[in-house]
Structures are given as C-alpha cells and as structure tokens.
Amino acid sequence: MILANASPFGLTLSIAAAAGYALSAMGAARLGTARLGSAQALMAVRMAWLLHAMILAWSLFGPEPRFGFAPALSMTAWLVAGVYAVESHLYPLLKTQWTLSALGSVAVLMAALLPGHVLNVNASPWLPLHWALGIASYGLIGVAVVHAWLMARTEEHIRQASDSHSGMPLLMMERLTFRFVGAGFILLTATLLIGFLFEKQLYGPNTQLKWDHKTAFSVLSWLVFATLLVGRAQFGWRGKRAVRFLYVGSLLLLLAYVGSRFVMEVVLGRTS
C-alpha cells in the first residue's frame, strides 16, 4: 500500500497540517469572505504552515529522504502560502484566498499518500540545488498564476461596476504578477542551466543528454515565459493576451516535472 511508505511521525504531522488548513478554509468559506474569519482560524493556518514546513524538512532530511510529484506540489503550495503571508503584511488590503488553504490541505495529504521515491544517499551536492531552484520557480510562477486569476476577476468586476473584493489596486496587482513571473523565469533559467551543464554530476558519469518529456516541457515553458516577458517589455502586452501566455507556460511547467513523475510513479509504478 502507498501509506506503508509513510512514517508514523510524518503521517501525524501531515494530518495535523491538513486539518489546520481545512479549518481555516472552512471558516472563510462559511463567512463568505476571502479573509480568515477569526483569530482561531488565523492561528490554525499559521500552525498549519509551520507544520507543513516541518513535513517538508522531514521528507527531505529525515531518516529516509523521499521526493516525487506529490512532495513537489506540496512544496509549491507551501511556497505560495509563504509569499502570501509576506504580502499580507506589505499590502494589508490584500485578502487571503480561502482556496489557498484548501489547496494546502489537499497538497499535504497527497504528499503523505504518495511520498515519492527514496533519494540516493550518494547523490551529487548539485542535485539539492537543482531541485531547490526548480521548486522555487514553481512556487513563484504559482503565485503569479494566482495573481493573474485575481487580476482577471477584478477586471471583470470593474466592467460590471461591482465591488471586486480584491483588496489591491489593479495596476499594483499587475506589477506584482509580472514581477513574480520575472523572478520565476530567472530561477527556471538557472535550473535548466544547472541541469544541462552539470548533468553528469547530477545523474551519473554515464548519463547522456536526452530530450525526454521533462526536458521538452521545461524548455517549452521557458520559451513561453521568455516570449511573454519580451512581449510585455517591447510591445506592452497586457490583459488577456499576457494572462493566456502565463497560463500556457505554467501548464507546461507543471507537466515538466509533476506530470512526468505522476505518470512514472502512479501510472507506471516506477521510481526512475
């Protein structure tokens, strides 16, 4: 069974973190608002985020380090939540979306059920950096996608002359969206460069560069984001065109690692 791979300590932390996220999400949904509705709900999501961090540390640095598509999603969700925590202090009007708490709960449980493959203890020291940069790019692009969705919703409410409930001016939200895209693109570039330049150190001396699904989708996503940033800088791309490019690039990036690992680990039942 999949759960047989999960340690009792890690599973306990996962259940506690998922419960904390779920409590905050249900509290916000019940009140029909984007903000957490009470001090108890706010404390719950903070504790859930800290427990989530402990789960990630345990999965990577515990007695049996593991990684796979579900832990990658879990780490991305944790990074997104962390960025929003910082933004809520810098921009007090920004309203925390209850859906982020719900997604956090799902991501934690998925990582507990599907903990991934055991990492090789003799792996190259470049490998953690390669993964860290890749997951960080996932997180920043994920935040950009959430901002783009909020931006599109705000524009729609403005057209309808109704209250958008976004909590942030539209132009500020747009600037933040593309700042996150730019930062994620820089980290994605560094990830790809390390993968290409240090491939033998990462995956063994007999490894040869091959254009598998992960490499192809990663390069395609990089090209889409590069086109988006150049189009915005040179031609002033905004609105739906820019958002479509962002969504397409994000989907390709998601397929690059998470999609390929899902097929390997769940569909084919393989770890490599």
Q: What are the key terms here?
A:
272 residues, mainly alpha, 9 helices
Q: Overview of this structure, please?
A:
With 272 residues, the protein is mainly alpha-helical. It has a domain at 120-267. 75% of the residues lie in helices and 1% in strands. The protein has helices at residues 8-31, 39-61, 69-90, 98-113, 126-159, 170-197, 199-203, 213-235, 239-267; strands spanning 66-67, 117-118. The chain has a two-stranded antiparallel sheet with strand order 1-2. The longest helix is centred in the middle third of the chain and has 34 residues, at 126-159. The protein is flat and about 50 Å long. It starts with 7 loop residues before the first helix and ends in a 5-residue tail after the last helix.
SSE string = HHEHHEHHHHH
Whole-number mean pLDDT: 77
Name the strands of the widest sheet in spatial order: 1-2
- Please state the overall shape, judged from the principal axes of the Cα atoms: flat
Q: How many distinct helices?
A: 9
Query: Which structural category fits the helices and strands?
Result: mainly alpha
The largest pleated sheet is described as: 2 strands, antiparallel
Q: Tell me the β content.
A: under 5%
Radius of gyration: 19 Å
DSSP E strands, number: 2
As residue ranges, the low-confidence spans are 31-37
Distance between the termini: 19 Å
Helix % is over 70%
